[in-house]
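Limitations

Structures in this collection are predictions, not experimental determinations, and the ligand pose is part of the prediction. Treat each record accordingly. The example that follows, with zinc ion as the small molecule, is included so readers can see exactly what is and is not provided: the inputs are given verbatim, and the output is the predicted complex.
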Amino acid sequence: MSIFTRDRTFAEPLNLTFIPIVLFHAGAVIALFMFSWKAAAVAAVLWWVAESLGIGMGFHRLLTHRGYKTSKWVEYFLTVCGTLALQGGPIAWVATHRTHHQNSDKPGDPHSPRDGGFWAHMGWIITGEPMHRKSAELLPYVPDLRKDKFHSWISEWHWVPIAILAVLLLVLGGWKYVMWGIFLRTVVGLHATYLVNSATHMWGSRRFRTGDKSTNNFWVAMLSFGEGWHNNHHADPSSARHGLAWYEFDLNWYGISVLRWLGLAWDLKLPRIKTAEQATAADLPLIVSS
Ligand SMILES: [Zn+2]
Ligand SMILES: [Zn+2]
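Predicted complex:
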């Protein structure tokens, strides 16, 4: 059987999200012909702002799982950083991700490789029913965010911060900075996040016998600032720390630790499970999830 018959992507019609995704990929390719060290450096900083501060520390570990507490203004700042990743607003992102944890690799998981690897990577976004913030099936998953006026507003206007950033880059630096800081940087960040949904439910090692197919994968963790320690994460979703062993570099955890050191984050949820070195076979049944 070929990928085309096995993968759900090719059984679903394209949706409108397909258009900006294609345009951004085209922009990313054009950026490669406009290289400059300065533009690449700006893009690298923006990559960290959008993907680590925004998606990893903000949308994922704070808004979805409440792995730590912080003030509202830090929460809103991290949320605006998250919108720069062009992964939609916080309400749709968080609701989709909570659905994923509830149904991991089972019917109802929005992006499981059981429907095909490409489906889990990006097929679920560009084909089929788009998962936007008003999707009726998603709303029950985010009562907390829907009550918050800022999160409701930014979920509607999530594309505005990246549009403002694009104009600023154009005015201050020129097209080179737009192509690198917006198009190429966003596409790299999108695929890093997509890999957490695809690769770390297919390839890597499994420390914990979670009830899904999640894995720990070094190179995905490096591309996603620590989100690739995904088997650790599924074993204990509310922990603010995903990398458990010293060699499991988890930049998002280091970032949260810096916030704590600055007095900007508190009540950090640590793994109920022990660190990798301490975990014994006897511990494993304790964290088998349903
Ligand atoms: Zn997962
Ligand atoms: Zn999660």
